[in-house]
Every structure is written in C-alpha cells, then in structure tokens.
Amino acid sequence: MGINVGIISSRFNQPVVDELLQACLDKLKEQGFKPNQIFHQTVPGALEIPLALDLLAITKRYEVLIAIGAVIRGETYHFEVVSDQSAAGLMQVQLNHHIPVINGIITTNDEEQAYARTKVKGEEVAMVAIEMATLSGMIKNG
Predict the structure, then answer these.
(1) Rounded to an integer, what distance in angstroms lies between the CA atom of residue 25 and that of residue 91?
(2) Is 97 a catalytic residue?
(3) The predicted structure's pLDDT at residue 79
(4) Overall average pLDDT of the 56-72 stretch
(5) 1 pLDDT band (50/70/90 cuts)?
(6) Prediction pTM value
C-alpha cells in the first residue's frame, strides 16, 4: 500500500490516548502498513494537534493525516472550547491543504465512556484514513 500516514496525538489524558493510538496502529499494521509508512509525534493537548498536522501537511510527504486525542468533560466550559476549536482546526488543515485529516479526538463525559470507545474508535480512524487517502488519490490522479 503506497500511502504514508502522519499521526499527531496529544499527551493530555494520555492513558486513554495511548489506547486509541495503539488500536489505530494495530489496525494499520493489520492492513499491511509498514513502520516506515507511519510518522507519529505527540503534542501537549488537543488544541496543539491542528498546528502540528498543518506542519506535516506542508511537507507533502503524507497522503492522509490522523489526529488522536481525548477530551473528557470537566466542571468548566473548557471542554466545549477544546472540542469545538480542535475540530475546527482539523477541518481548516484539511481544506487548506486538500489532504484528508481524520478526527480521532474523542469527546466524552467521563473516563469510563472514553475507555469504552478507545479500541473501536482507534480502529475506525485507521480504516477511514485508508479509505479517504485512496479516494483522494483517485480523484487527484483522475
């Protein structure tokens, strides 16, 4: 498979994020990806992910980008700000660079809900990344 994947994950809520990331990486490997086709780097939190993905997009080395993080509701409005703005940032990168950006930043009410979603969501983002990179390549290459 000739697809290179750039993954940025957050370190905030790291135990949850680690499970999401591992599920994603395991699914990519199961689908035939080799380690040299996958670049991964971490950033402090979900709000830093769009910038890091934007920098990866500029390199033009990747056919698809994946954001992985976990935003868990707290007692303040901060949850909504982080959820909304990280998603908006991902969309901006995707549209500015014409490269699929897969949103694997889960947003939940508590840790229990987050852990209940890690395996399925991690696998889903890997499969969506493959599908969107393939579709994008077909459209661009006509």
Answers:
(1) 22
(2) no
(3) 80
(4) 97
(5) low
(6) 0.96
SS (H, E, C) the chain: CCCCEEEEEECCCHHHHHHHHHHHHHHHHHCCCCHHHEEEEEECCHHHHHHHHHHHHHHCCCCEEEEEEEEECCCCCHHHHHHHHHHHHHHHHHHHHCCCEEEEEEEECCHHHHHHHHHHHHHHHHHHHHHHHHHHHHHHCC
Query: What is the identity of the amino acid at 14?
Result: Q
Question: What value does the mean pLDDT take over residues 8-19?
Answer: 97
Catalytic annotation, pick one of 40, 78, 97, 98: 78
Q: For residue 46, what are the β-bridge partners?
A: none
Lookup: tokens for 78 = 């901060």
pLDDT of residue 136: 96
Domains of the chain: 45-61+70-142 (3.40.50.960)
88-125 burial: b if 16+ Cβ within 10 Å, else e: ebbeebbeebebbbbbbbbbbeeeeebeebbbebbbbb
Which residues share a beta bridge with 65?
Answer: 6, 101
Res. 43: pLDDT tops 80: yes
